[in-house]
Every structure is written in C-alpha cells, then in structure tokens.
Specification:
The structure is a single chain. With 99 residues, the chain is mainly alpha-helical. It has one domain (21-97). 62% of the residues lie in helices and 0% in strands. The protein has three helices and no strands. α1 (21-45) crosses α2 (57-77) and α1 (21-45) runs antiparallel to α3. It is flat. It starts with 20 loop residues before the first helix and ends with a helix.
Amino acid sequence: MPDAILPITAPATGPSPLPPPRDAALRKAAEQLESSFLAEMLNFAGVNKPPQAFGGGIGEAQFASFLDQAQAEAMVKHGGIGLADKLYAELKERADAGR
C-alpha cells in the first residue's frame, strides 16, 4: 500500500507586519526623489526628443516632461537605480536619531 500523500500547505502565519506610517512616508519620499532625478536625466539625455523630420511642435515639447516623469516613475517601481534605497536608509537613520 503506498504511503499517503499529504497536501502541501503554506505555514500558518499572521498578516505581514506593515511598516510604521512614518517609514512608509519616508519610503515614498525617497522614491519620489529618485523618480524626479531620473526624469531630469531622461530629459537631459534627450531620450524622448522627436526626430527632426517629424517633430510634434510646441505641444509635443510641452508634454514631453510628462512622458519623462511617467517613464521615471515606472523605472522606480521596477527597482530603479537604487537611489531610493540609499535615500530611504539615510532618511530613516536621521529620523531615528532625532527620537
């Protein structure tokens, strides 16, 4: 008679602890700073500059910063360049020292 196969279940754990509201606010601020930095770098590098032959005129120039910002936010959401992690650690250390 074969051994009974028991179903594999995840260990019973409680809900994952949420970071304190202050830490969540610091993390959000760090991510916003990284996305602003990346948006400026994208703008400076000319990543979204249209080719000379098919430029969209002044309207395209005005909305290019929105595209840069959206791309930068997506980059940060997917890990970024690590700047938010460093900023968060520094902000948290300073906030903890002030207690």
